[in-house]
Amino acid sequence: MKQIMHKKLVFLFIGRTASGKSSLARYICETLGLRQVKSITTRLPRKDEITGYEDHYFVSESEFDEIKFKEGFVAYTEINGIKYGTTYNEIVNSDIYVIDPNGAKYLKEHCKDDFKFIEIYFSSPFELAKDRFLKRDGSEEEFYSRYNSEDEQFTKYEEAEGYDHLFVNDMSFSKASEALRDLLKSEMEKEKSL
Fold first, then answer.
1. pLDDT tens digit sequence for 13-23
2. For 137, left (φ over 0), alpha (ψ -120 to 50), or beta?
3. pTM for this structure?
4. What whole-number distance in Å separates Cα of residue 9 and Cα of residue 116?
5. What torsion, rounded to 10 degrees, do the Cα atoms 124, 129, 131, 135 define?
6. In whole angstroms, what is the distance from residue 110 CA to residue 176 CA?
7. How many angstroms separate the CA atoms of 59 and 20, rounded?
8. Which among 4, 5, 9, 166 would be 20 to 30 A from 144, CA to CA?
9. Which distant-in-sequence residues (6+ apart) come within 8 Å of 57 by Cβ?
10. Within 13 Å of residue 17, how many CA atoms lie on the same side as its CB?
């Protein structure tokens, strides 16, 4: 009898700025013992962000280009002139990837045969997202700039409805984390039973 080889399951958390995807990803990783992809980025760290600790490795433009040349990126995107990339090894060793639609498209084009990607699209009401952004020490100007700059790619993504799950994040953090944890557990159980 031929043994079925399972592809590595990786959850892609996709959502507009301040949709709650990053905070929920960190919590889910802590509670389920999963690992989140840490992107390499030329973005400056926000207040209290430490390179390699949460979501990103913060590097200079020249360091970014050196990594891209030496290892290559299987996910790459650029937002407002800020570059984000991820290596193959980082994906292999991770379970959840917070990524934008352009980055997800690039990722699937470069390694869809090696992984099973489950896309979860995080949607939040506009005013709630703005409030979240302001609470993390962002300004209204920054919020509108980010929101408007990513609008085209997210509008196309929303219209295509290519995601596996729509997660409407308009609830408290505890309710959202519980609902998301249940969703991921369900997907992992399905994968085990195949």
1. 999 999 999 99
2. left
3. 0.88
4. 5
5. 120
6. 31
7. 24
8. 166
9. 38, 39, 40, 41, 51
10. 23
